[in-house]
Design brief:
The chain is α/β, with parallel strands linked by helices and 224 residues long. The protein contains ten helices and eight strands.
Length: 224
């Protein structure tokens, strides 16, 4: 299974990332990835998932899935549909869409059966350790108070990054560790990687930027 690239962009449900605007952002991410050689994955809005997966030459992940198998589940997103869309995996347990630990475990187990990547979010080191025991592809530690704040976790709370890296790697060295919340510049990315993280999860710093391409190029400059 492929690794999660060092930059993962969550489109959330912003108006700036819906429909044609979202597809334009996918294209920009792809162009920056090709230009810089730095891997970028995108998490488009759920209604755009299949279209993004069809058009993108970079990894595409769902923003969330339910812990259900395919069947009579009106209005839910299941892993089988994510795979059928052409996407390569999914985010899990974002602070804006939290999940019970049993549901996280069920999704991770089923994703492995389907060959899909799981990038699970955690709000602190203890939660990172608990989710690591379930065997996701990657974990992104994100203190909720810093999400969208413009204050990068890699500088505001470096201990939570380094401690989470240690906790996860002690359980399973194969699990990648990312950090998120407030990441918006190349120096933020560089600081995160120096703390042991293998990448960053971000959203508004790019999606709501007046020039997303410029921001993405700056972010990529922080990846050696």
């Amino acid at each position: 299974m492929s690794k999660v690239p060092p930059i993962v962009l969550n489109f959330k449900a912003y108006s700036e990332s819906a429909g044609e605007k979202g597809m334009s952002l996918v294209k920009t991410c792809e162009e920056v990835a090709e230009e810089t050689g730095v891997g970028i994955a995108v998490c488009p809005q759920q209604v755009d998932l299949a279209l993004a997966a069809e058009k993108a030459g970079i990894p595409v992940y769902a923003q969330h899935v339910e812990a259900f198998e395919a069947g009579s589940r009106t209005g839910y997103v299941v892993l089988e549909a994510v795979k059928a869309s052409g996407a390569q995996g999914t985010l899990l347990n974002h602070s804006e869409h939290p999940m019970e630990i049993a549901a996280i475990e069920a999704v991770i187990r089923r994703a492995k059966e389907l060959g899909l990547i799981t990038l699970a979010c955690a709000n602190n080191t203890e939660v990172s350790r608990s989710i690591a025991a379930l065997g996701p592809s990657a974990i992104a530690v994100e203190p909720p108070a810093l999400i969208g704040s413009g204050i990068p976790v890699s500088k505001a709370d470096p201990g939570i990054v380094s401690d989470s890296v240690e906790a996860v790697k002690n359980l399973d060295p194969k699990i990648q560790v990312f950090c998120g919340a407030g990441i918006s510049t190349g120096s933020d990315v560089k600081a995160a990687l120096e703390l042991g993280a293998e990448g960053v999860l971000l959203a508004s710093g790019v999606v709501k930027a007046s020039d997303p391409r410029k921001v993405l190029l700056d972010l990529a400059s922080g990846v050696p």
